[in-house]
Design a protein that fits this description.
A hairpin with a 4-residue loop joins strand 12 and strand 13. The chain is built from 15 helices and 17 strands. A seven-stranded antiparallel β-sheet has the order 8-9-10-14-13-12-11. Helix 4 packs across helix 6, helix 6 runs parallel beside helix 9 and helix 7 runs antiparallel to helix 9. The longest helix has 17 residues. It has about 475 residues and is α+β, with helices and mostly antiparallel strands. This is M48 family metalloprotease.
């Protein structure tokens, strides 16, 4: 029976009010698809979704605009990020959920994003982004683009304009107010902003070309001023004793959450790229930094004089790979240079191409029913750039069963502190992370000198 039919209900039963709907337009649908494509799709976890949507319902009821609808999507990305579209679509990454330590911290992020929607900041930002729209240069027009740098290879479609400092302070103020009225601890915002700042410091050494790795701090600058401001605002509300942190419920919901990169989508370990689901691996040359973006694997040599792109393309089974390379998808291909070759037993073809600023070496390789493309770009053709291209392509091979089984994701595990446990001993149990002791402190909201207490519930990263 349709659950919206009311006829059968006895007259005394009050029907729950339907939730306000989120207005969908072709533009917001398109933007939603673009965000999913750039942030690894949705992360499906009913327990987490239930926690997030209950938190949103509580915040909506406490806000000045209970008629504004919201729809939350959890994104399958290890980046720490959250953002909103003007129509009330909210996005939060699993990376952000892993960093938060209780429901009041989560509520501070969600209410902050709701505040951007309610203050029309999200709409202003969208106009700004539209005016400054970065046109994505696909590889097809690389050869006749005079301004091309190696990084243009890496440009993908997600460019979020930043909010102004005043908009951030305004959203913090409104957000803390909504959280407090919903009986969440109003100090959650200050705690989470501090956690983000410390998390950003841990990451500072690593530059990433992938927009999915751009975290909350790049679109919402997290500064000591914002932490202080959030604390000042929180003081205006009831003492935190009566307010909920709801830590136990929160930790139960994030126990077993995937942490960092999701190997099923392919992942980078040093200079090696592995894709357990598709069953292959290859290794980039020395001095190259690899980045797994939503559209392609991008490699850039230190200094930017060489770059590479690896992606998958549709090529009909009956078309030869040499014909494909000459079919006009890329300008400047020297057809006389095209040759059919075999790489580790896989049929392949190679060709060279020339642009104004760059020299290209291109390979297409058939693996199962897919065709993979390696595009190498060098400012000047040299024996080194030629060797780099050749060695990378020759390193492409099938993964062994052991390698596939070993490629498991890291996960957040919630454990109880036992007598004798210390920050140091617990951080030694962390797998696959850099700076384990500092990372343990940041994940658990512990200050530099704080120690763990027996029976505390804490997060560790395990495989």
């Amino acid at each position: 029976m349709n659950r919206f039919q009311t006829a059968a209900a006895p007259p005394t039963v009050a029907m729950p009010k339907p939730k306000p709907a989120v207005a969908q337009t072709p533009a917001t649908e398109k933007e939603h698809e673009r965000i999913l494509a750039s942030y690894g799709g949705t992360y499906d976890d009913p327990r987490l979704e239930s926690l997030v949507s209950k938190t949103v319902d509580r915040l909506v009821a406490a806000s000045d605009r209970p008629d504004q609808g919201y729809r939350v999507t959890i994104l399958n990305s290890g980046a720490v990020n959250a953002f909103a579209l003007p129509n009330g679509q909210l996005y939060v990454t699993r990376g952000l959920l892993a960093l938060a330590s209780d429901t009041s911290e989560l509520s501070s992020v969600l209410s902050h994003e709701m505040a951007h929607v309610l203050s029309k900041h999200a709409a202003m930002r969208e106009d700004q982004a539209r005016q400054a729209a970065i046109v994505t240069r696909v590889v097809t027009d690389m050869s006749n683009d005079p301004d091309l740098t190696a990084l243009a290879l890496a440009k993908t479609k997600l460019t979020m304009a930043s909010f102004s400092r005043n908009q951030e302070f305004e959203a913090d103020g409104i957000g803390v107010g909504i959280s407090a009225k919903a009986h969440f601890d109003p100090y959650g915002a200050a705690r989470f902003l501090s956690a983000m700042e410390r998390n950003a410091e841990l990451k500072a050494g690593k530059t990433s070309l992938d927009p999915r790795a751009q975290d909350f701090t790049s679109s919402h600058p997290a500064t000591p001023e914002r932490v202080q401001n959030a604390q000042t605002i929180a003081r205006q509300y009831a003492a935190p004793e009566g307010a909920e942190r709801d830590r136990e419920t929160y930790l139960a919901a994030i126990d077993n959450l995937v942490y960092g990169e999701d190997p099923s989508e392919g992942f980078v370990r040093g200079r090696r790229f592995l894709h357990p689901k598709l069953g292959f691996t290859f290794q980039a040359p020395d001095n190259f930094t690899l980045d797994n973006t939503a559209q392609a694997v991008i490699g850039v040599r230190d200094g930017g004089s060489q770059a590479m792109r690896f992606d998958v393309v549709r090529v009909p089974a009956e078309q030869s790979l040499g014909d494909y390379l000459n079919s006009g998808w890329m300008e400047g291909v020297d057809k006389t240079s095209t040759e059919d070759i075999t790489i580790n037993g896989f049929p392949a073809a190679s060709a060279t191409a020339k642009g104004d600023q760059w020299q290209f070496k291109v390979y297409a390789l058939r693996f199962g029913s897919d065709v993979y493309r390696f595009i190498f770009a060098a400012r000047q053709k040299s024996t080194e750039s030629e060797r780099n291209a050749r060695e990378t392509v020759n390193s492409f091979r099938r993964l062994t069963l052991e390698e596939i089984q070993a490629a498991r994701p890291l996960r957040i595990k919630v454990i109880t502190v036992q007598p004798g446990d210390t920050v140091e001993s617990l951080s030694h149990r962390m797998a696959g992370v850099d700076h384990p002791a500092e990372r343990f402190r940041v994940l658990n909201g512990l200050d530099r000198n704080a120690q763990v207490k027996v029976r505390d519930r804490v997060k560790v990263v395990a495989d």
